[in-house]
Write a structure and sequence with these properties.
With about 210 residues, this protein is mainly alpha-helical. The protein has 2 domains: about 20-85, no CATH class; about 90-214, no CATH class. The chain has 8 helices and 2 strands, in the order αααβαβαααα. It has helices at about 5-15, 45-55, 90-95, 115-130, 140-150, 165-170, 175-190, 205-214; strands at about 100-105, 130-135. It has a two-stranded parallel sheet with strand order 1-2. The chain starts with 6 loop residues before the first helix and ends with a helix.
């Protein structure tokens, strides 16, 4: 089996190897939520606008995605029961009963997964439920390059595609300071996400110490 560090595989992938993909394992009915439009447009000339504009375009053709014209009623945060976008915690609690169930965190090259409000919420929820967690990296050098940002993670600085989602996530956290501490704990403790083996046989303690010193 070829890994992402395999030169042959990287050559086959070409430019596609540098692109980032979002994979959602639990599908939702998009006709009940996001098919009818894009998130609220940020002010022109801002970094938020550039990110919003890029997200609404096809990464190959650069054309803006077509809006669905279906008449399916949409349910967002104001429809607490019908909304399918806000129940990841209940899904995880249900799946916890599945034998050998675990959470795999595939980190992108720039570790942007840790900047997403939904993602860090899922990380902390899995830790709270004692779900086995594994972090998959491109390589250890990638971790060292972005380790400083990991030591400064806090949920209020994380982003979401919809402002309403970001606000709901913060609102549902009773103590954001305690949440941030738990997030750091699940990353850096001896059994946390950063348990790994380096190619030079560096011990786990030395590896974490190197990260924290950067």
């Amino acid at each position: 089996m070829q890994g992402l560090g395999d030169p042959g595989l990287l050559q086959q992938l070409g430019d596609s190897a540098s692109k980032r993909y979002w994979i959602c394992a639990f599908c939702i009915n998009q006709h009940c939520s996001i098919c009818g439009g894009f998130p609220h447009e940020p002010p022109h000339g801002t970094q938020e606008y550039l990110e919003w504009d890029a997200a609404r375009r096809d990464t190959v053709t650069n054309e803006i995605y077509l809006i669905c014209n279906c008449r399916q009623q949409k349910h967002f945060n104001d429809s607490t029961v019908e909304c399918e976008l806000n129940k990841f915690d209940r899904v995880m609690e249900k799946l916890l009963k599945t034998p050998k169930f675990g959470q795999v965190v595939a980190a992108d090259l720039y570790f942007e997964v840790f900047e997403r409000a939904w993602c860090v919420s899922e990380l902390v929820e899995a830790d709270f439920l004692n779900i086995r967690q594994e972090l998959i990296l491109h390589d250890v050098d990638c971790l060292h390059a972005h380790c400083q940002s990991l030591t400064q993670l806090w949920v209020r600085s994380c982003k979401a595609s919809r402002v309403e989602d970001q606000e709901e996530i913060i609102r549902n956290i009773a103590d954001t300071e305690a949440f941030d501490k738990r997030l750091q704990w699940l990353l850096f403790r001896s059994t946390g996400l950063l348990r790994f083996h380096t190619s030079d046989s560096m011990s786990q303690t030395a590896a974490v110490a190197k990260i924290l010193k950067v």
